[in-house]
Design a protein that fits this description.
The protein is mainly α. 78% of the residues lie in helices and 0% in strands. The chain has a single domain, classed as Growth Hormone, Chain: A, CATH 1.20.1250. The chain has helices at residues 2-5, 8-22, 28-31, 33-40, 44-67, 74-95, 99-114, 117-127, 133-162, 164-185, 204-207, 210-244, 253-278, 280-299, 306-321, 324-334, 340-368, 375-389, 391-399. α6 packs antiparallel against α10 and α13 (253-278) runs parallel beside α15 (306-321).
């Protein structure tokens, strides 16, 4: 077992399994939004707060936790994060009764994600530094979509059979299992030392790295659209069903959301492969422009036949995730030796600030434009998200214009 633990394929597979388990709870609340609208009488803005606070709490602590991986084995940070994720989901299952209690426990679970997602990537790259590292990063990043698909699937199926509290209880059990897997599989490792000693949160070397900052800003644009899509998919599809009067059949909103995340996983892996041929920067810029346009169109499609809405949503999901692994690899490749953790800290913090704001902005626009029963309001909410995505290609054009045209690995 010890020898196998450092085999690249085995290690990547086990870290990806743990990643899926920690993500079981990530979209449990958005997947059950119609339930909470009915049971707690939430407004769209309140729902946006609860969906967004998961990522806002992540952003509040991820900088410290990921920066620590330059000084402390990322494995230890991961174990702490998995424990926190389990406690947050268990607390929601046992004690959530409305807006404020939901906010507290979702924030706690979000802090757990801060201790697992990027520290997990760091733990993987610290132990798998070969020529196939970019592919391992792509699989790890793509697995995020598999985890979110699992989140939608578990939330819908478990809630239907046993009630929504059990959906969060299962998420807590899954995070605890991830903790056990990482504790057993990963051997302790010492992080690479920086060439020059810096303070823990001295981000100046990262901010001065134009190529790294280009990918960091692109990552913010990516999380902006990703969390908006995942947070509001079920509610949007439920609205489309009422508007068109169609029958969902086996394509219930939670099922569509789950399948869109699975599609996105393969898109992330394929995107990473294609980017090695076309160049990282060029690929990300092209995908993001197409994604912004498609996302805006999706918002105005609710009146179409339900199957057409689903097809457009799945195409949007492909575009949203096609650049994910490439962006993470681009940031890692641009990071200075010994400052990977610090660079990933800035990367994560900005990304999850955007992830926090996007579902909230979506909900606010939805309320201000007429509410969840207005086709125009849904169109404007998606258009607002599409506009924010354009920050990504703009940053890459301005800050990374001098980078090499073809990047094949970090």
């Amino acid at each position: 077992m010890p020898g196998a633990a450092h085999n690249g394929v085995f290690l990547t597979a086990m870290i990806c399994v743990a990643e899926v388990l920690t993500l079981v709870g990530v979209f449990t609340f958005p997947a059950l939004l119609p339930v909470f609208f009915d049971e707690w009488g939430l407004s769209n803005t309140e729902a946006g707060w609860i969906a967004g606070i998961y990522f806002g709490a992540n952003a509040a602590v991820v900088g410290v936790l990921v920066s620590l991986t330059d000084r402390v084995d990322a494995r230890l940070i991961y174990l702490f994060g998995a424990a926190l994720a389990a406690i947050g989901s268990a607390g929601f299952a046992l004690f959530a009764e409305g807006f404020w209690t939901a906010l507290v426990f979702r924030a706690m679970a979000g802090m757990g994600l801060a201790g697992t997602y990027m520290p997990g990537l760091r733990a993987l790259t610290d132990r798998y530094d070969g020529r196939h590292q970019a592919r391992a990063v792509a699989f790890y990043t793509g697995t995020f979509s598999l985890g979110t698909a699992t989140s939608f699937l578990v939330a819908g199926q478990v809630a239907r059979a046993f009630g929504w509290r059990w959906s969060f209880a299962v998420a807590a059990i899954a995070a605890a299992l991830a903790l056990v897997i990482v504790a057993v599989v990963l051997r302790p490792a010492r992080p690479q030392a920086a060439k020059e000693e810096t303070r823990l949160l001295d981000t100046r070397p990262v901010l001065a790295n134009r190529r790294a900052m280009a990918y960091i800003l692109a990552y913010g644009a990516h999380t902006w659209e990703l969390t908006s899509l995942r947070s509001w998919t079920v509610a949007f599809l439920a609205f489309a069903l009422t508007l068109g009067g169609d029958e969902a059949g086996w394509l219930a909103p939670t099922t569509v959301a789950m399948l869109s995340a699975i599609i996105a996983m393969f898109s992330s892996i394929a995107g990473a492969e294609l980017a090695t041929r076309f160049g990282f920067r060029r690929w990300v810029m092209g995908v993001m422009v197409c994604s912004a346009v498609t996302g805006a169109a999706l918002g105005f499609s609710a009146g179409l036949p339900y199957l057409a809405v689903v097809a457009l949503l799945w195409f949007f999901a492909v575009l949203v995730q096609a650049d994910a692994g490439v962006i993470n690899s681009g940031t890692l490749g641009a990071a200075e030796a010994g400052r990977r953790g610090l660079t990933l800290a800035v990367h994560s913090t900005f990304g999850f600030v955007c992830a926090f704001l996007a579902p909230l902005v979506f909900g606010v626009v939805l309320d201000l434009a007429g509410g969840g029963t207005s086709p125009l309001a849904w169109g404007l909410a998606f258009a607002a998200i599409g506009a924010g995505v354009l920050l990504g290609p703009l940053a890459l054009a301005v800050l990374a214009g001098g980078a090499e045209r073809r990047e094949t690995h970090p």
